[in-house]
Design goal:
Structural class: mainly alpha
Radius of gyration: 21 Å
Distance between the termini: 32 Å
Strand content: under 5%
Shape: elongated
Largest sheet: none
Helix content: 55-70%
Order of helices and strands: HHHHHHHHHH
């Protein structure tokens, strides 16, 4: 049985690395059901659940992805990549409560994680705490782009009074920095392709 479990795990890893994701997820699930998995190292079990979650997210099965990312984190709670991917998957699936919890926990663990700050800010923009989005967005993309994102969000929501106030603030920041005012794609009767830049991925701190 031990040899069979080891073979399942090796084949699952090989399939995942070859891009045969459906087959890899199936074998990881079979491996996790073996008696040997109960005594496997936490890193092995965490990776198995994580890779099942990645496959589920590719299929846009966000509920399964959430379960598997959370299972992976139970084995490796300090793994920043796992927590980021839980938050990003939840954000993509419009589960903003889960995204909020994941990104805020990750930022508490590692404040110098620009993508976590960025998506935490975007998550806050989707809820009732939009004003709180300014701080993480500023850390991620800078104060001008952060103000522009808030402005455009208010335009998208049709809250023109708030949007106008934020646009005025964005204009002031641009003037102070000597930079052009960013575009607001959702502003009525205004068309532009300019977009604030998403920060490049930075490697999390070593586990």
């Amino acid at each position: 049985f031990k040899e069979s479990a080891d073979r399942l795990l090796l084949q699952a890893n090989a399939y995942f690395e070859q891009g045969k994701f459906h087959d890899s997820a199936r074998l990881y699930q079979k491996y996790l059901a073996t008696p040997e998995a109960a005594t496997a190292p936490p890193t092995v079990l965490g990776q198995a659940h994580y890779r099942i979650a990645v496959v589920a997210r590719k299929k846009m099965n966000f509920a399964e992805a959430k379960r598997e990312f959370e299972a992976a984190l139970r084995y490796e709670p300090q793994n920043q990549q796992y927590r980021f991917d839980l938050g990003k998957s939840a954000f993509d699936g419009a589960d903003y409560a889960t995204a909020d919890a994941a990104f805020s926990a990750l930022i508490a663990q590692n404040p110098n994680y620009p993508q976590a700050q960025y998506y935490y800010g975007l998550t806050l923009l989707e809820g009732t705490r939009r004003a709180e989005a300014l701080a993480p967005l500023t850390k991620a993309v800078g104060e001008l782009e952060a103000a522009a994102l808030l402005t455009d969000k208010y335009y998208a929501l049709g809250e023109t009074e708030s949007a106008a106030a934020w646009e005025a603030q964005t204009t002031q920041i641009a003037a102070r920095l000597g930079r052009p005012v960013p575009a607001f794609p959702n502003k009525p009767a205004f068309a532009s392709t300019a977009q604030p830049q998403i920060p490049a991925q930075t490697a999390p701190v070593a586990q």
